Amino acid sequence: MINALYIIVLLLTGIGVGLVSGMLGVGGCFIMIPVQYWLLTTMGINPSIAIRVAFGTNLLVVFPTALSSSLRHHKKEVVLWRQALLLGLTSMVFTFLGAYVASILNANILKTIFAITILLSALRMATSHPIRVKGEVHANPITYIFLGIVFGFVTGLIGIGGGVLMVPLMVIFLNYHMHEAVGTSTAVMIFTSLGGAMAYILYGLNATGLPPYSIGYVNLLQWALLAGTSIPTAQIGAHIAHKVHPKWLKWLFIIVMIYMALKMLGVV
Question: Is the pLDDT of residue 71 over 90?
Fold first, then answer.
């Protein structure tokens, strides 16, 4: 049953997701997915369906949010578009493979994989080398294709835009400045989120027990409420990101990741 509290929670979540997306170069998956999963299971939706709907809907929200924030970062000249296109197009193809695997896995396994992925990304980010001040970013296209395959598969598997993986790897292994990693990540998520959302719609077309207003594993009501608030606030978040020192931006990123991963595991 849809009530006022359900709508208010989703609207507030969308605001938070937009700010986080614009500031940190992530899709806000570690906020949206736990909230959507909780709301759906509270409504009586089977957990195995709820987690997939949360994944699929999250990806469709990420698409316009990433588009919005990447345009702001482009104006600040921190989006490396050549690298973003190579990563994005490769990832888009492999989101379908990840989503297929997700469609046949147990809900508890998916939740655990989701949380562990975020925790490991946060840990690696926290122990990374100092942020680059000088030097060129890594330019080997083979590296980008390989990473695109990984990003795409993980995006499809656990319904994330990929920012929680991309930003740390760009900073640690590709020698990106934090602001470059955030900006380029938002551009790549345009492709990963669109491919992943399409895959979740396709693989969920014959599913039973879906919540009202769903097309496959994408819930249009949740999408409208989340995207309607996250798109404009992503612009604000991207603006704030360029006012914050990269070191503080990095630690904010880590703290939020850890909290939401533990929330998904039921630890907090």
Answer: no
